[in-house]
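Notes from the 1:1 (GR / supervisor)

We went over the backlog. Supervisor wanted to see one worked example end to end before approving the batch request, so GR pasted a single chain during the call. The sequence is below; no edits were made to it. Supervisor asked that the structure be written out right there so they could see what the output format looks like.
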Amino acid sequence: DDYDSHTNHARLSLNKTINEIDFVLGTDVALYSAEFENRGSYNSSVDKSAENYATFLNFDWIGDKWIWNGGLRYDDNSLHRSVTTYRLGSSYEIKNGVNLIAGTSTGFKSPSLYEMYGADNFGYSGNPNLKEETAVTYEVGLKVDIEDDDMRMYSKSTFFTTEITDQIKYSNSSYINDTAGKTQISGWDYSNKIVFDSTTFDIGAMYVSAQDSSDTQLLRRPWWQGNIAVTEQVSDKLQIWSAYKYYGKHKDLHSTNYSTIERGEQHNIDLGVKYMMKDDMVLSGTLTNVLDEQNERPHGYSQPGQEFNISFKYLF
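Structure output shown during the call:
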């Protein structure tokens, strides 16, 4: 089999401050191509190249209680229509260490070269008429950074919603744009870090409702995800940590018959240790997937089982 892809990327930007507002004006150029051929029982191929030229303007302003930032970007792609996107965000300090945050942004996702021009010997044929997905997102939340004599806490809680138009999806041995309606993705994202004298707790949780235009849950979008980690600084030289990750029930695509299937929840536990041999020498060890869970994400692609790693770093 041969697989060959190239991306040549160049970016030029100018930074300027005018009346306490920081501006960044720039251009972004990407020239990319993909070419591959499989010679086994499964034979798939694509041979295409494209160019993307973009111009952008970003700004940041910090006041006594307010922070504003935003940007505007124009993309011109040789295979798609031109797209203009923007973002605007703000933060307001309600009281010391507590900030209200809000923002909105638009974005787009171009179809891949394979989605547009690929083919295989099982009947798949790309769709050269695919349009980009476009999206608009709104979010609002709280950021907290407070400290006293005993601890310091960093916390962020955000509610968000995203509306996607012309979502790209697989259908009848090709890819199409979903023109029947809009895809809605809404949820809540929470993270919290608490630092005591020698112990750090990290907690995270995310709830997501991701439904396409027919109110069907999107693939590989679990309703719930979460993580808990504890780090203990035993001494100036020794640190130990443990972490647990949860990936909830979700829908997936069967790897052989391409039917939609229900997948169960997945659990993962990792352990680690770090020892400062000297100021410039670090010895680390990790035990990942302690329970040796046999996870496949996506279906048909097994993730590593229980693994032990040891590393030595010399800083100079």
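Supervisor's comment: The helical segments are 113-117.
Batch request approved.
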